[in-house]
């Protein structure tokens, strides 16, 4: 991802409730893996169905239902670098009512100095039926994060001591600035499903989604983002003549507001606020619709076509201050229109084989952070930033060649218009956004799943991507606050995109409850600046896991116990765990590029099923 601190260009849902805000930004802090039962993934540009921010596709997390928990579960885990996690799940199904409550607390000292954190998540799910036709679902999830934040390392710092807190000067010294994130996110939503008849379903979803942040870096930002979202969908299974036809129409509207204050950081190692630098107030309103038809033109051949439309109204007003005195009051009011057509043809000759070709589009409007940050990475304005759009072409096959062996192979070519590239200014440690007029991503994805005998599973995946700028005039400020510099980057590799990623996993589970797996992952080297002169080295990782499930007699106080022991980075390799796109406003030796990944670490834990 080419955005720091958040996830962009992917649309997220949890149990049907949208988790991506109206400006296209999402946070993975909300989704605790221990709560989850399954994950659904749609790859490639998908804004025809999922509107804003679905340039890379959609990810839908699904939590365990109360009937799956059927009592009380507790979780306790600990391990290297002060890691501790505690979890609680309570769930039950009573006739037509299903209730599940999850809560977790996670804390760690951190592998990197000045990276300790603690976070709490509570997730409540309430489902009930009224007769055979009406289903209701209510969800409330909240996450609070308190974390110290180091500064990304230069290549020299990484090679000398990959665990240091980083920083090359007073403007990005994490200890002097007391860099910290104190964030809270809460989503409360409801979903109503009505089966109008045997072939027609109406769905209505609405939620209130609020992000409240206090982030201390070179400047200190306090911001509040309340967001209301609503969706209405109608699905119908019918026929066109003798051909089966699935029809879908949907409408959506959402409104997000922003109130933000930015202060100087006094740099007294306590994160004290100095003079006010900027006030900003903004609104993003999106409204649109979606239409899709899937027609089985001949048996086992399905032609699908759809289109999505969104009108976005973005309004931002800022008040900028210099040395505490009023300096300027710039503002912007923009109306943006985005269309997202999609068409595909798939052939499913048998239940074990599916082949397809697909052309689709995605789009994403600029976020508040893009609009209210200057090219030095500090509070300012960047109202010229444009929405981005991509055009995705793919051909693929998903085939089970044998009862024990399946493969998937996909070739893709993605053209991106006005791609929003977020770069970090190494002097100020602030990030800013610019548009790359056109870029392209070409490659393949291949995977296999082999289950030769009961309990055994061998799986693997390989991705190759060639990412290149076609037409791009890079912009940044020399030394953080100097004049704007423009340099053509045509033909350069898009940074922070690994050319090759390879994964293998071998698993075995015995009927007695014992099991384990061994996993290895390879990442090729990749650039982290637009000039393609410095980046992250290639690496291999090896992880292993051993687990045991013990079932107790029915109706006992203890229903089951699940134990695990896991060893990560067995070879204790030094590698890059997180990279950011770095502006070429400083020499390569001073570019703050990445955080180190964890060294060798061991973790263990137990889940108890009670009552």
Mean of all residue-level pLDDT scores: 95
- Separation of termini? 44 Å
| CATH architecture annotation | Beta Barrel
Structural class: mainly beta
Count of helices?
5
Task: Tell me roughly what share of residues is in helical segments.
Answer: under 10%
User: What is the CA-based Rg, rounded?
Assistant: 25 Å
**Number of folding domains?**
1
Outline the biggest β-sheet. 22 strands, antiparallel, barrel
Instruction: Compute the number of strand runs.
Output: 33
> What is the global morphology?
globular
Poorly predicted regions are: none
CATH superfamily: TonB-dependent receptor, beta-barrel domain
CATH topology: Maltoporin, Chain A
Tell me the β content.
over 45%
CATH class reads Mainly Beta
Structure description:
The protein is mainly beta. It has one domain (11-610): Maltoporin, Chain A. It has 5 helices and 33 strands. It has helices at residues 47-50, 66-69, 155-160, 174-177, 368-371, and strands at residues 11-14, 17-18, 36-43, 57-63, 71-79, 83-94, 97-108, 117-130, 134-148, 180-197, 200-216, 219-240, 243-265, 273-298, 301-322, 325-328, 331-350, 353-364, 388-402, 405-424, 431-450, 456-471, 473-477, 484-488, 500-509, 514-523, 526-527, 535-536, 539-551, 558-568, 576-579, 594-596, 601-610. A hairpin with a 2-residue loop joins strand 15 and strand 16. It is globular and about 65 Å long. The two termini are 44 Å apart.
Keywords:
4% helix; mainly beta; 611 residues; 5 helices; 22-stranded antiparallel beta barrel; Maltoporin, Chain A
Topology:
Blueprint (H helix, E strand, L loop, with lengths): L10 E4 L2 E2 L17 E8 L3 H4 L6 E7 L2 H4 L1 E9 L3 E12 L2 E12 L8 E14 L3 E15 L6 H6 L13 H4 L2 E18 L2 E17 L2 E22 L2 E23 L7 E26 L2 E22 L2 E4 L2 E20 L2 E12 L3 H4 L16 E15 L2 E20 L6 E20 L5 E16 L1 E5 L6 E5 L11 E10 L4 E10 L2 E2 L7 E2 L2 E13 L6 E11 L7 E4 L14 E3 L4 E10 L1
Parallel strand pairs: 1-4
Antiparallel strand pairs: 1-2, 3-4, 5-6, 5-33, 6-7, 7-8, 8-9, 9-10, 10-11, 11-12, 12-13, 13-14, 14-15, 15-16, 15-17, 17-18, 18-19, 19-20, 20-21, 21-22, 22-25, 23-24, 25-26, 26-29, 27-28, 29-30, 30-33, 31-32
